[in-house]
Amino acid sequence: MSGEQYTTASAVLPLYMKIKNNLQNEDEDSSLLKSIKSEILESLNKYESHPMSSNLQLSTLWDPRFQLNFVESPEEVKKLAVAKMRNIYTTQKTSNPDNFENIETRTKEQNKKGLAKFFDVFGSNSNSENTRNPSQEAEKELNEYLSMPRVSFEHDSLDWWKVHCESFPSLKVLARKYLSIQGSSVASERVFSSGGSVITRQRASLLPKHAEMQIFLSHNKNFFFHFQIV
Predict the structure, then answer these.
(1) Angle between helices 171-178 and 53-61 (to 10 degrees)
(2) How many whole angstroms separate alpha carbon 167 and alpha carbon 17?
(3) What is the pTM of this model?
(4) What is the C-alpha separation between 15 and 18, in angstroms, rounded?
(5) How far apart are CA 154 and CA 65, in angstroms?
(6) What value does the CA radius of gyration of the chain take, rounded to a whole number of Å?
(7) Rounded Cα distance, 83 and 4, in Å
(8) What is the pLDDT of residues 88-121, one digit of tens each?
(9) How far apart are CA 141 and CA 124, in angstroms?
(10) Is the CB of residue 215 less than 8 Å from the CB of residue 198?
């Protein structure tokens, strides 16, 4: 959970549910073990109503390894996801109405000739497709995503989104936002530790922008040396 090169927030709820399942009392457990399990479960229950729970649920949803399989209230999470996707659809249509349309569909319409173009005027349902409201568009895209087969747990979810991002125009925006959340505070604590090493008593007059440069170089020196060698 302390990694920085892969998604971590999406794995919080699945791990939490696995821990809860493993802490359930069994017949062969001793009274002491049952008491220990009960104490641990009671201390974990407070996290279920945590303000971050909705963000963790959405992060798990956007992870193709988990989707809704580790979410306790899948229908509620789907409603929340559709609401956020609807806002993205509305914003995209308002800012870029021409770019929002399906370019592939428009190209096919333009390429129709002869009888195909003539009969399409009467038999095509493209008008009804184009008049779907943002909620319908969001539900359609979400259902298409949920119909995709789940990938194995060893697979990198970010690699999956690199391949399928163009198929889900609004989902990719939310996936980029929620999958970038860190599952623990270790990464930010590393930055504070680096800041303490840069801003010392002997360098107390260091300007903020120069301190930021030093911290940035400290965390990206491997990339810098790689580009220098290449």
Answers:
(1) 130
(2) 30
(3) 0.69
(4) 5
(5) 9
(6) 25
(7) 29
(8) 888 876 666 554 444 344 444 445 555 555 455 4
(9) 21
(10) yes
